[in-house]
Amino acid sequence: MARAATTSDVFNAIAEPQRREILVLLRAGERSVTELAEELGMTQPGASKHLRVLREVGLVRDRRAGKRRLYGLDADGLRAVHEWTGGFERFWNESFDRLDAYVRDLKQTRETE
Questions:
Q1: 8 phi, psi to nearest 5 deg
Q2: How many CB atoms lie within 10 A of CB 28?
Q3: What's the N-to-C CA distance of the chain in angstroms?
Q4: What angle do CA 8, 18, 55 make, to 5 degrees?
Q5: Mean pLDDT value across residues 46-66
Q6: 33-70 in b/e burial notation, b at 16+ Cβ within 10 A?
Q7: In what side-by-side order are the strands of the sheet with 31-32?
């Protein structure tokens, strides 16, 4: 089965650890490519390449600020990831609810003995 191109699929784009690190840094606010490269210990061309991929899948937006280009998080792009992981959240919540019920029953049984 062929994999979707990294530049068109948000899941493939965020599979790369440094791209996820960029997204985490951008949660705190806009940064230039130079700032991102310094904080992540990578080259500026390397950071630019990751930002291009993230921009193409709609996770990052950019804007001019004088001579600098600033990058910011575009959280709408994460909607597909959020919706997919939401199914697992329901699974874990139901599992914890069953565990809580089991612990309550066990505690009540021990108190009555």
A1: -115, -5
A2: 8
A3: 58
A4: 35
A5: 96
A6: beebbeebebeeeebbebbebbbebbbbbbeeeeeeeb
A7: 31-32, 68-73, 60-65
Residue corresponding to tokens 């650890």: 17
Per-residue tokens: 112: 């009555």
Q: How far is CA 45 from CA 6, 33, 70, 75, 103, in A?
A: 18, 9, 15, 24, 54
**Encoded tokens for 92:** 């874990």
Whether 13 contacts 57, CB under 8 Å: yes
pLDDT of 2: 53
User: What whole-number distance in Å separates Cα of residue 50 and Cα of residue 20?
Assistant: 10
pLDDT of residue 90: 86
Rounded to whole angstroms, how far apart are CA atoms 49 and 37?
11
**Distance (Å, whole) CA 63 – CA 45:** 18
Q: Is 4 helix (H, G, I), strand (E, B) or coil?
A: coil
